[in-house]
Amino acid sequence: MKNEQGGIHGRQLEVISEDDRYSIPAAIAAFKKLVYRDRIFALCGPGSASFVPPLWGKFQKEKLPTICLPFTELAVNPYKRYLFITCDTYEGQIRALTDYIIREYKLKNPRIGIVLPDTEAGKTDLRAALPRLKEYNIEPVTREILMAGAVDASSQVMSLKKNGVNCVMNIGTITSSAVTLVRELKKFGINIPVFNSWGAMLAEGLNEIGDAANQAYIVHAISPWYGEGLEVQKMRKVTLRYHPGTEKPYRGTSFSYGWAVGNILAEGFKKAGRNLDEDAMIDALESLKNYDTGGLLAPVTFSSGNHKGGNASKIYKADPVSGKYVTLTGWIKSE
User: Fold this and answer.
1) Which of 28, 59, 130, 324 is the most buried (most CB within 10 A)?
2) pTM across the whole model
3) CB 73 within 8 A of CB 85
4) pLDDT tens, position by position, 249-278
């Protein structure tokens, strides 16, 4: 779209993509190809938080302006000049979710069970959840391991029931395992709220399983395809102009995220001016203050000492009747 409007300062933009296959060796190979063969100016990636430690030194060495797609604290804490995150981190979103459970949902005598995969994503979310719960004098009554992609959760559900759990925090999860968990709870007649981390909303799976998902809640820092806001509306309009008839199935939140990242990079190119180089781009991005994303993300602010662009998320609820995730809150800051 920017190219159709003459580009930015007369420059045409080219997007080159490489699949890192969720593998560190593949991610390193993709980085080398993009940087040394394709001579890219900026990068959006990598695909996993676990890829950041082996790559961030290379980003710094090459002075490569990088929007880090995983919402990992590793990318921005401590400060790294060439790495940015555009929204709240995994940890921040879990803190916001915990606050919502205690302050807004106001469950009486909460007996919280935590369900998580034995992965780095699960451990990251757990490291944020436990201290936040402790601030409210709450200790989880049980922790259950449910791996991503699991098709059965009967043993985990039976343990939740045995421990008298009346609220589940399903963290470090993805859509498919969240679907498995809420289905099993329904199957065993356990009608309790399930509060999921952002990965449960990557697709519309929870809205496709009927009333089993009626008490499924999710925290997310990114608007869904059908969310509200001027830029969200523009995203749909432009996308459907190029791909008519593809409104459904609804695109996942990764699509909205990609649109937001593209806008932020474009704003950086614009502010950097005609004498563009890597440091001019970094300075331009660091000048963004409360940048309005039009509803895609919370307002974005960077500075010369902080490249974490946002610190707020929203809480959504699955709604199988409408087939959409319903927004329950405004932007909740992770304090």
Assistant:
1) 59
2) 0.93
3) no
4) 999 999 999 999 999 999 999 999 999 999
